[in-house]
Design goal:
The structure holds 2 protein chains of 2 kinds. Chain A is α/β, with parallel strands linked by helices. Chain A has 8 helices and 16 strands. Chain B is globular. Classes of the chains: A alpha/beta, B alpha/beta. The structure holds flavin-adenine dinucleotide, flavin mononucleotide (FMN) and FE2/S2 (inorganic) cluster (FES).
Chain lengths: 303, 254
């Protein structure tokens, strides 16, 4: 028997596969495809305090093995999501993670506090890295001081384990990761999408109204892996690797690099049953490598 | 909805740009209704990454048919599929048209918009009077003429931009007259965006119940990614993949 469980310190997950925010809806949409109980955990799509309608189309553009998105986080607002969380908690005992968003520090704190009070919620993931902001805008995860201050305030106002989700669109990921850790983060997840751009030769205009959009999918895997490596080297808290994962093999590579768990994103959109396949592939690889627990390989990259 | 690996049973080239693909899927063929679509995995690699949406043209268990136009990379790859190749498809997806009885229904199809219309004719012609307006750029784009003629139609009006078959002009040219002369109760239309825009102006206030089948850029096809948003009259967004692809004409902001 291989043991797929992974210990994040504050919680033990039955396996390292977590579905990523914005690519898994509220989970319930996937019930037709598989039993949610099989997942390590799942992150709901990002939520603001008030309802939001999202960006005007076009909202996606396909690239070679990648996807640019400028969805703009449409959602029903925190109040409505509370009802949804109660509903999905009845469906599965798999840990539910809330992806907390905000347009201001105050909003982040308010949203975090709302879900901190819910027993149905296991962890909060602070999305300080959404790239779909107005042209020229910056997200908190692009600034060390802002990251520290915001994480610190949220930590003071909440009691659930806090994952801080970082942006890859920075010069020095280590210093941002350290700021999040010093601010009180219990765990770091990375990466959110890479800023990219697409232009339309016919109209001579950018494809997206916001000019930039977020790139995800297999195209970003090597970039994500490098940032996960640098982060693992600089902090003492567990790291969740995200970016371009589509197979059990990809998961094992992130774990070998030092990630304690992973999130799978875009592949959920393309192949709804991807997580079922990936979990099975992890088991098969562990058997083949003759390892019984993930600890035997975690962070064991030979440099 | 289910994702399944299915067998391609035939991929017939209708002309330069159009293909009719027969796929074996017991599940989709038995569960589909007019208006539904499927997401098709056109490549086993990650390039292109996303599945492509296609309406269901015909469904006779255990088979479904897709009728597609080659417009880019994905549809080009789809055109290369051969008999007995495996293909992953997700479906049936989207909402569907309601049931009609003893109605006079005008169907309006522009180009590949014939897909949901063909399925609808098949379903509704038994208990309703069907009038069809079908138009395309030229004769070579106006395919499936024989298949369509075989259907039980009250009247058929053909149009081409250059007049090579049927009348010269746009599908929308005479709809107002056709509706009035035949006392049409319901219209169902599918075609490119400009066709809808013209159509709205002509028939919005004529008193018919108007259904349309819309296209949009799609990521997932089952309501997860929010990429298929269309603005409604009251400035909200609807998702074409789950709230549609069938909409009431007056609900959309044109
Ligand atoms: C609900 C629905 C049903 C459809 N049914 C049919 C059908 O029955 N037969 C058929 O031939 N086509 C249908 N389409 C359109 C079809 O999905 C696109 O033509 C196809 O995805 C293009 O893929 P590609 O890789 O060949 O083109 P790409 O290389 O991706 O793009 C080529 C061109 O096609 C346009 N395009 C890309 N995706 C779409 C899309 N989802 N909708 C409209 N235009 C698009 C692009 O803007 C571009 O101009 C349908 C679309 C939707 C949303
Ligand atoms: C359509 C879409 C929506 C997303 N929405 C969110 C979101 O609401 N919150 C968030 O933190 N990340 C969001 N992301 C980022 C993903 O969670 C993930 O970090 C990123 O896509 C990289 O992983 P991947 O390559 O496996 O997709 C979104 C990504 C996509 C493609
Ligand atoms: S295509 Fe993903 S939500 Fe409609």
């Amino acid at each position: 028997m291989v043991d797929l469980s992974t210990d994040l310190g504050f919680i033990k997950l039955k396996n390292p596969v977590i579905t990523a925010s914005g690519t898994f809806g509220y989970g319930e949409e996937f019930q037709d495809f598989f039993n949610l109980d099989i997942l390590g955990a799942f992150v709901l799509k990002g939520i603001y305090k008030n309802p939001k309608s999202g960006n005007s189309p076009p909202r996606i553009h396909e690239t070679a093995s990648g996807l640019l998105n400028s969805i703009g986080l449409p959602g029903p607002g925190a109040k409505e999501l509370q009802k949804i969380v109660k509903r999905i908690h009845r469906l599965t005992k798999t840990p539910i993670i809330i992806n907390v968003c905000g347009e201001s520090d105050e909003e982040y704190i308010e949203v975090a506090e709302i879900f901190d009070k819910m027993d149905e919620v296991t962890m909060l993931e602070l999305n300080i890295s959404c790239p779909n902001i107005k042209r020229g805008g910056k997200c908190p995860a692009q600034d060390e001081k802002h990251t520290y201050k915001l994480v610190n305030q949220i930590k003071h106002n909440t009691s659930k384990p806090l994952i801080v989700k970082l942006s890859p669109n920075v010069n020095d990921i280590s210093s941002i990761a350290i700021s999040a850790e010093q601010g009180g983060a219990d765990c770091i997840s990375l990466v959110n999408t890479f800023l990219g751009m697409a232009v339309d030769l016919d109209s001579k205009r950018p494809v997206f109204k916001n000019l930039f959009a977020g790139l995800s999918g297999p195209a970003i895997k090597p970039l994500a892996l490098k940032l996960v490596w640098e982060t693992v080297q600089s902090v003492h808290i567990p790291v969740i690797g995200i970016g371009g994962i589509t197979s059990g093999r990809d998961v094992m590579e992130f774990i070998l690099t030092g990630a304690s768990a992973v999130q799978i994103g875009t592949i959920n959109i393309v192949e709804p049953k991807a997580s079922v396949r990936i979990i099975k592939e992890i088991k098969d690889i562990m058997k083949k490598l003759n390892i019984e627990s993930l600890d035997e390989i975690k962070g064991k990259l030979k440099i | 909805m289910k994702e399944q690996r299915c067998f391609v049973k035939e991929n017939k080239k209708i002309n330069e740009n159009y293909f009719l693909m027969k796929i074996k899927s017991e599940y989709i063929s038995k569960n589909s209704k007019p208006g539904n679509f499927v997401m098709v995995n056109v490549s086993e690699t990650f390039d292109p990454l996303l599945k492509r949406p296609f309406g269901i043209f015909k469904s006779e268990p255990p088979f479904i048919w897709l009728y597609f136009e080659v417009v880019g990379k994905g549809t080009k790859l789809l055109s290369n599929f051969k008999k007995n190749d495996k293909i992953s498809i997700l479906g049936p997806l989207g909402n569907s048209l309601p049931e009609f009885k003893n109605k006079k229904i005008l169907m309006i199809a522009g180009g590949r918009g014939i897909v949901p219309i063909f399925y609808s004719i098949h379903t509704y012609s038994q208990h309703n009077d069907i009038f069809l307006v079908y138009g395309a750029k030229s004769e070579k784009d106006l395919n499936l003429y024989e298949e369509i003629k075989s259907k039980k139609l009250k009247k058929l009006f053909l149009y081409t931009d250059n007049g090579s078959v049927g009348k010269k002009g746009l599908v929308t040219s005479d709809v107002k007259n056709i509706i009035n002369n035949n006392k049409v109760d319901i219209t169902i239309s599918c075609g490119p965006e400009p066709m809808f825009k013209t159509l709205v102006k002509k028939i919005e206030h004529i008193g018919t119940e108007n259904y349309i089948s819309m296209e949009a850029l799609m990521g997932c096809g089952f309501g997860i990614c929010h990429s298929c948003a269309k603005k409604t009259k009251n400035n909200n967004y609807k998702q074409v993949c789950t709230d549609g692809p069938i909409f009431k004409m007056e609900d959309i902001k044109w």
